[in-house]
């Protein structure tokens, strides 16, 4: 079955530690995205990538970093510079320029 | 930039119709979208409407678009308990930028017997 796999589903981190969230897709989609979801707020775009080896900042990129070395993979690193990292993180992909995003099941990060 | 607003909660009785509303400030988005999120899961595209349409019907779903008032709505007929979820409206952030979506905060729909 084609889809998007995010891991881990739950993650706990101590303050000051970096953590990397994995996102893999086998849909052969060109574009991939990372969104952050907080209660009572809409999804906010962190980073997106339209092709391999290229990515752009979204609205809340500070304290995050990404890479896109392979079409299938778009990992997100939450760095210690991110002041409020506890959130639900969603990865998505799409076929080029279409608003139909396919989402993974999310990763919930809690900073202790 | 684009601002998308939705009410946060809606409670309906099973079998009734649900209407979820969305307003936006400024859109040149070619398409406007409704996504559904079930508990603990990612979002799924539910339906969308092309910006030059007023209405789109898809089985139990009806989307209405009022461009003059910048108002989008999703009507679910004969609402079932399986429709309980969070519903997000979304628009593209820029002309032709279909893939850079701005989401509303989401409306949590609770369906009770």
Task: Write up what this structure looks like.
The complex is a heterodimer of chains A (112) and B (113). Chain A is built from no helices and eleven strands. In chain A, the strands form two sheets. In chain A, strands 2, 4, 5, 6, 9, 10 and 11 form a seven-stranded mixed β-sheet that branches. In chain A, strands 1-3-8-7 form a four-stranded antiparallel β-sheet, with no helix packed on it. Chain A is globular and about 35 Å long. In chain B, strands 2, 4, 5, 9, 10 and 11 form a six-stranded mixed β-sheet that branches. A five-stranded antiparallel β-sheet of chain B has the order 1-3-8-7-6, with no helix packed on it. Chain B is globular. At the A-B interface, strand 4, strand 5 and strand 9 of A face strand 4, strand 5, strand 9 and strand 10 of B.
SSE topology sketch:
The complex is a heterodimer of chains A (112) and B (113).
Chain A (H helix, E strand, L loop, with lengths): L3 E4 L2 E4 L5 E7 L5 E7 L6 E8 L2 E4 L6 E3 L9 E3 L8 E8 L7 E2 L3 E5 L1
Parallel strand pairs in A: 2-11
Antiparallel strand pairs in A: 1-3, 3-8, 4-5, 4-9, 5-6, 7-8, 9-10, 9-11
Chain B lengths: L3 E3 L2 E5 L4 E7 L6 E7 L5 E8 L4 E4 L2 E6 L4 E6 L8 E8 L8 E3 L3 E6 L1
Parallel strand pairs in B: 2-11
Antiparallel strand pairs in B: 1-3, 3-8, 4-5, 4-9, 6-7, 7-8, 9-10, 9-11
Compact summary:
Chain A is mainly β and 112 residues long. Helix content of chain A is 0%, strand content 49%.
List the defining traits of the structure above:
heterodimer, A: 112 residues, mainly beta, seven-stranded mixed beta sheet, four-stranded antiparallel beta sheet, B: five-stranded antiparallel beta sheet, globular
């Amino acid at each position: 079955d084609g889809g998007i796999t995010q891991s881990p589903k739950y993650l706990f981190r101590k303050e000051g530690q970096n953590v990397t969230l994995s996102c893999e897709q086998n849909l052969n989609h060109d574009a991939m995205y990372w969104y952050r979801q907080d209660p009572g707020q809409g999804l906010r775009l962190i980073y997106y990538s339209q092709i391999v080896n290229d990515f752009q900042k979204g609205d809340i990129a500070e304290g995050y970093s990404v890479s896109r070395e392979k079409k299938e993979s778009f990992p997100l690193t939450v760095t210690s510079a991110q002041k409020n990292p506890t959130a639900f993180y969603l990865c998505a992909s799409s076929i080029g320029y279409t608003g139909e995003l396919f989402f993974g099941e999310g990763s919930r990060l809690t900073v202790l | 930039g684009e601002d998308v607003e939705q009410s946060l909660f809606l409670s309906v009785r099973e079998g009734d119709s649900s209407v979820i509303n969305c307003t936006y400030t400024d859109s040149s988005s070619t398409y406007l979208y409704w996504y559904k999120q079930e508990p603990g899961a990612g979002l799924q595209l539910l339906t969308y409407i092309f910006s030059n349409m007023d209405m789109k019907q898809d089985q139990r779903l009806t989307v209405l678009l009022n461009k003059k008032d910048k108002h989008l709505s999703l009507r679910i007929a004969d609402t079932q308990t399986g429709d309980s979820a969070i519903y997000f409206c979304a628009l593209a952030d820029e002309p032709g930028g279909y893939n850079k979506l701005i989401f509303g905060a989401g409306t949590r729909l609770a369906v009770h017997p």
